[in-house]
């Protein structure tokens, strides 16, 4: 039995790892490579998460002009830089450690292309929006690396992209309640991170080797996605002699019907048909797509 009930430190019911997926490289966009974990055939949807891609792009490869509707994309740069450019003239470059939290809502058409020499790497997470938020105005939240809240304690460093950890809060507003934490554990470190009971949560390992859920479980290394079972938080250990880096992401499930057609994610087939119609006819949020092309001049089939 746990020693203390309802203590602010320690977990009563640590979550266990219920499934593990190794994300292998595949081609996406134009010449880009992604390791897709959520969103592949075996794991279509982990409510509210639609896609998790660890991407790698080297010019001239990239993700030229393409639309989105009905969800959010969260791009977190790990190395290099990506320039995004949208049909309303919103343009910017995000570099290592920066985050772009884009709420596509009723519609965005944009390009995401490498902005530097060499290989650009990062994570892109697609978070579904509830039916009441699918058609909201698009919105961007951009946070540069230096403004991302960080906390350090007992060999644990956390960058708080969304939510709260080690007493530090992120300024990001999440329409679908979400936490997104980037942890680095020194050798020997032990983490206990609360996660709301009713949320779905996963770990994706970026570097090193970690033990998750139970102290006796086998070590997990980079490019593995771990789905967590029920409980009130995550326990993780770094029993190796190198540093361990992983993200912990959690979100409140929407529990709504889902119909997806590529970059359009709605609740019903009628809404998808309407979306294709809107995109083809430049209506209901896609008006500005009629005359817009990014600097690349290319477009992405989907
Ligand atoms: C997309 C194919 C795509 N993962 N990771 C079809 F590749 C994309 C797309 C991305 C993407 C972009 C970045 Cl910067 C990082 C990504 C897929 O843009 F949206 C559709 N529909
Ligand atoms: Fe996109």
UniProtKB/TrEMBL annotation:
Source species, domain of life: Eukaryota
Cofactor, free-text remark: Binds 1 Fe cation per subunit.
Gene3D superfamilies on file: Jelly Rolls
GO cellular component labels: nucleus
Domain Pirin N-terminal: 34-127
Nucleus found in the keyword field: yes
Keywords: Iron, Metal-binding, Nucleus
A single MF term (Gene Ontology): metal ion binding
Entries under InterPro entries matching the protein: Pirin, Pirin_C_dom, Pirin_N_dom, RmlC-like_jellyroll, RmlC_Cupin_sf
Binding site for Fe cation: 66, 68, 110, 112
Essential cofactor(s): Fe cation
Name of the protein in its database record: Pirin
Taxon lineage: Eukaryota, Viridiplantae, Streptophyta, Embryophyta, Tracheophyta
């Amino acid at each position: 039995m746990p020693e203390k009930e309802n203590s602010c430190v320690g977990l009563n019911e640590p979550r266990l790892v219920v499934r593990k997926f190794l994300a292998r490289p595949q081609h996406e966009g134009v010449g880009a490579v992604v390791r897709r974990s959520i969103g592949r055939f075996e794991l279509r949807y982990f409510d509210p998460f639609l896609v998790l891609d660890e991407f790698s792009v080297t010019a001239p490869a990239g993700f030229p002009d393409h639309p989105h509707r009905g969800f959010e994309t969260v791009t977190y740069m790990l190395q290099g830089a990506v320039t995004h450019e949208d049909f309303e003239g919103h343009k910017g470059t995000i570099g290592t450690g920066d985050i772009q939290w884009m709420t596509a809502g009723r519609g965005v058409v944009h390009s995401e292309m490498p902005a530097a020499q060499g290989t650009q790497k990062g994570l892109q997470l697609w978070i579904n929006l509830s039916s009441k938020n699918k058609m909201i105005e698009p919105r961007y939240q951009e946070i540069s690396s230096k403004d991302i809240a960080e906390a350090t304690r007992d060999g644990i460093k956390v960058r708080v992209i969304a939510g709260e950890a080690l007493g530090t809060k992120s300024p990001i507003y999440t329409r679908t309640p979400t936490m997104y934490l980037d942890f680095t554990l020194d050798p020997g470190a032990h983490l206990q991170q609360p996660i709301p009971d009713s949320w779905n949560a996963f770990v994706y390992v970026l570097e090193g080797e970690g033990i998750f859920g139970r102290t006796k479980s086998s070590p997990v290394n980079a490019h593995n996605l771990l789905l967590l079972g029920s409980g009130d938080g995550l326990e993780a250990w770094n029993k190796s002699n190198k540093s361990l880096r992983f993200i912990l992401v959690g979100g409140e499930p929407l529990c709504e019907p889902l119909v997806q057609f590529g970059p359009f994610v709605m609740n019903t087939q009628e809404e998808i048909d309407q979306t294709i119609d809107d995109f083809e006819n430049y209506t209901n949020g896609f008006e500005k797509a009629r005359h817009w092309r990014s600097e690349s001049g290319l477009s992405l089939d989907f």
